Amino acid sequence: MHGTLVLFYLLTLSNLFPKALSTEFQDTWSGLIVSSAFYAQTLPPPPPSPSKSAVENRKELEPYTCEKQKLDPETWKKLKINEYLKNYPKGDKLSLRAFAAENLAENFICGLEETCNAGQLCAPVVGRAWYVLFAAQQFNEYQMSLYNAIGIVGTMAQSAGAELVLQLFEPKLKKKATLLHKVSQLLTLCGAIVSVLLLAPLLFVPGLDAFVAVAIVSAAYATVQVGSVMASGQAQERAEKENAFMNWAIYSKIIADWKDKFQMSIGNEINSRIKKGVSDDNGIYGIISTAAFSSNELRTDTHDLEKKYRPILIIRLISQMLRAQKAFVTRGSDPCNKKGFNGAFPLEDGWLSYCDEKKMMFNIIRAEGSKSHNHLYNAKAIVQNYGLSVEYLTQQAYRCKLANIDGQFDHDPFERGQKLRDSDTPCLFNLPVCDCTIPEVSKHRKQAGTVGACRQAGQIPI
């Protein structure tokens, strides 16, 4: 631009006063014109004017200092933290710790057993960098809480199972025994509890799609759950060759392995995220970009964990232990005119029997060979020690049969990701149900007995 103006002035003067210039001066003048023309041609073109949107975007991403903002996903979006982090200089190479150090947080160290703390805004970290570190701190606390919760869930399953072995199996039992119908179904329940724990802290964060956030957070653990369930099948084959108490020792180890692998995967996940570049999708960005950890409303308290989930584990374990003993539910096998409540068989005599308001009887009995055994060992412990009514047990099983969710008698409600709610989660307690009111079953009972009729006419696997 400047070269063009000089050239213009020189040409104008030479045209206006050609005769006033001496020959020597004209030669010099001509040289200046040529030089100016060359200068004009070699200057780089001026940069284009920035667009309005680019200017606005740059202004929005300019660092601010200490203006406090509400800690929630809306603020995260308004401040464009994702854009800030994605475009952070060398962000694809800079670890979380290095990023923190660049922003004056020298002792910001995340990981298992670490308590990385972003402190208060501008003490000393300012602006968007503080929001990044705060979200990383929240993620670290969330993972630590999950790590501890998995330990509690695993220990609960082990202790509850050991307790039930003593309650529901005769002490003199020495022969080989199957304690759990499918130990894998216990692990899927443990996994379902963990899923609840993953989701619960995020449900009440305003403006957040908690399910999307959990899907991202839990992706790293899915293979651990699947691998543990598959390995449990091989261990179960070994366990069934042992007596009841050696059997439980093997099951207990399966649960311990599940717990250890799950916890290890959490440690690996944290370490992997914090060591990769802060703007890498596989680094901390891939987690905090959901804005799931931008809120200080996150609550990851495991204080009431055992109180809340131990009863659910107990129900599932009892279901599995009864199923392993070839227990099943009969409907309408007898009239409701017995000595127990509402005409059912009495609990004191070893029955698990219930009559509904329509005088339909439901019993939990056991098949041994071709014979039925109506009395279950220590049956009253299920009701008296664990507060589970026979109504609850039989009606859970019957509703599961009516739903016929996947056409299987051994439907596992958690195998395909069904959400665990509470003790009324469908099919939590699940035994095969033989409906003795069906004419074909009733006819066969007269000749083959209850077990034979339920196997042949009822087609139930006992």
TrEMBL record:
Signal peptide start and end residues: 1-22
Record keywords: Membrane, Signal, Transmembrane, Transmembrane helix
InterPro entries: DUF7872 (IPR057194)
Coiled coil: none
Domain DUF7872, chain residue ranges per copy: 240-462
Membrane-spanning ranges: 186-204, 210-231
One Pfam family hit: DUF7872
Protein name: DUF7872 domain-containing protein
Species annotation: Phakopsora pachyrhizi
Lineage: Eukaryota, Fungi, Dikarya, Basidiomycota, Pucciniomycotina
